[in-house]
UniProtKB/TrEMBL annotation:
One MF annotation (Gene Ontology) recorded for this entry: acyltransferase activity
One annotated Gene Ontology cellular component of this protein: plasma membrane
Highest taxon above the source species: Bacteria
Protein name: MBOAT family protein
UniProt keyword terms in alphabetical order: Acyltransferase, Cell membrane, Membrane, Transferase, Transmembrane, Transmembrane helix
The organism of origin for this protein: Leptospira bandrabouensis
Classification via InterPro entries: Ac/AlaTfrase_AlgI/DltB (IPR024194), AlgI (IPR028362), MB_O-acyltransferase (IPR051085), MBOAT_fam (IPR004299)
Subcellular location: Cell membrane
Topology in membrane: Multi-pass membrane protein
Pfam families cross-referenced by the UniProt entry: MBOAT
Length: 448
């Protein structure tokens, strides 16, 4: 339908399918999303017409409203549980009643989408959309609606406003990106998810030292899962003539935490950099203030990922890793020209990130101690299954190939060579047949 109708009809199709796509999950949540779209469209229009103090007051109201919207649906239950735990700790009775609030899927992503739009309008880097449908498509663009990337308005809105040029190369490249995304999701993320659930169901009854193995499995699970979705989003968009930003750039080859976060979930890390870190002063007020700003940013990153003890600890942990590395670099302990340090850096960066992901699974502060106790032991060699190494092989080969080519975006040689496409497709289908668990498994980031 999309390929054979006029550009104007394409816009209506994009909007209609965005609404349909989201409503397949929950119709009630779709009304909340449409309210958010209408509310922010109107706010941006009013914001562009005001000046002086009124403009600033409306901007503060606009940002606060979006944060309140996110807070009510995502964090109210967590705050309620904290209050209940506090009552118990001081000897009061536990709260019997607990509110039930729906957590709309993708709410963190589309709320940040709207906040970046309002900030760009307020800073006069873009003009607000005059056409409601253009802004609605920006907010409801279905390839990235659920899990991002958190696309910038300055990149996506001009593409929506212009006529899309669809070529054979774009279609082939889009199909190959989508196919690769589904492949790594179904043959790496899904079986790894089952392995993690089996071996880390409870921190109370774990084999000693097993977390040294479970941690990197979680890392590859999350990477294949989220990178897979990002590739699907990029592929779908490219088939329709759009180009989304690349969200991952071989992060596991990073030699330090700073480099890692410039290559992992790029849309979120650059969002936090531009709209929080730089607004706080960045590195313009001395080394101590720079590190404090980093800790604030990563505390917020932890909260953004989820409402729970583990996410708060995870955010602080990541902030400390960055501060520690920057301190080593600041005082001359790290030499970027040293190949040995780079190789060791890749190992330590990967494992520090992997161990941090264990914190996602923490349900109470007491479980942190259980994790640390398990990590004081080393696992048995027999505990490392060969199947894990075989499963991640295609992803490692692809990333090594892309690293050798130094690509900025995932790049396939098959975009203009259908025969090569069929050969690769057959190989991936064969691998999928051997290793996929053939079961429905939600995307990991749906919970955020």
């Amino acid at each position: 339908m999309y390929y054979f109708v006029s550009d104007r009809i394409r816009k209506f199709l994009l909007l209609a399918f965005g609404i349909y796509f989201y409503s397949k999950w929950n119709v009630n949540a779709t009304f909340l999303l449409l309210f958010s779209v209408t509310f922010n469209f109107g706010l941006a229009r009013f914001l562009s017409q005001l000046s002086g103090k009124k403009r600033k007051v409306l901007f503060v109201f606009a940002i606060s409203s979006n944060l309140l919207y996110l807070g009510v649906f995502k964090y109210f239950i967590f705050v309620w549980d904290l209050y209940s735990d506090l009552r118990i700790s001081v000897g009061l009775s536990e709260l019997v009643w607990k509110p039930e609030i729906l957590l709309p899927i993708g709410i963190s992503f589309y709320t940040f989408h709207n906040i970046s739009y309002l900030i760009e309008v307020y800073d006069k880097r873009i003009f607000p959309c005059k056409n409601f449908f253009t802004f609605a498509i920006y907010d409801l663009f279905f390839p990235l609606l659920l899990l991002g990337p958190i696309e910038r308005p300055g990149n996506l809105i001009p593409q929506i406003e212009s006529k899309q040029t669809i070529t054979k190369e774009k279609i082939w490249n889009g199909v190959s990106l989508f196919m690769w995304g589904v492949f790594i999701k179904s043959t790496i993320a899904d079986p790894f998810s089952r392995y993690v659930e089996t071996h880390a169901q409870s921190f109370h009854s774990l084999e000693l030292g097993i977390l040294w193995i479970v941690a990197p499995v979680i890392a590859f699970q999350v990477y294949a899962d989220f990178f897979g979705y990002s590739l699907c989003a990029m592929g779908l968009a490219e088939m329709m003539g759009f180009q989304l930003m690349n969200n991952f750039k071989r992060p596991f080859f990073s030699s330090n935490p700073s480099e890692f976060w410039s290559k992992w979930h790029i849309s979120l890390s650059t969002w936090l950099r531009d709209y929080v870190y730089i607004k706080l002063g960045g590195n313009r007020h001395g080394f101590l203030r720079e590190n404090l700003n980093l800790m604030i940013v990563w505390f917020l990153a932890g909260i953004w990922h989820g409402a729970g003890y583990g996410f708060l600890i995870w955010g602080v942990y990541l902030g400390l890793c960055l501060v520690f590395y920057r301190s080593l670099k600041h005082y001359g302990f790290v030499k970027e020209t040293s190949h040995i340090q780079s190789i060791l850096g890749i190992f330590f960066t990967f494992y520090s990130f992997s161990l941090g992901l264990l914190l996602f699974r923490i349900q109470s502060p007491k479980e942190t101690k259980l994790i640390l106790e398990n990590l004081t032991h080393f696992p048995k060699i027999s505990s490392i299954p060969l199947m894990i190494l075989m499963t991640i092989l295609p992803l490692l080969v692809f990333d090594l190939w892309q690293e050798w080519k130094k690509t900025d975006r995932p790049d396939f040689f098959i975009s203009s060579k259908p025969f090569s496409f069929l050969v690769v497709f057959f190989f991936l289908f064969l691998w999928f047949s051997l290793f996929s668990p053939f079961g429905k498994q939600d995307f990991f980031y749906f919970q955020f």
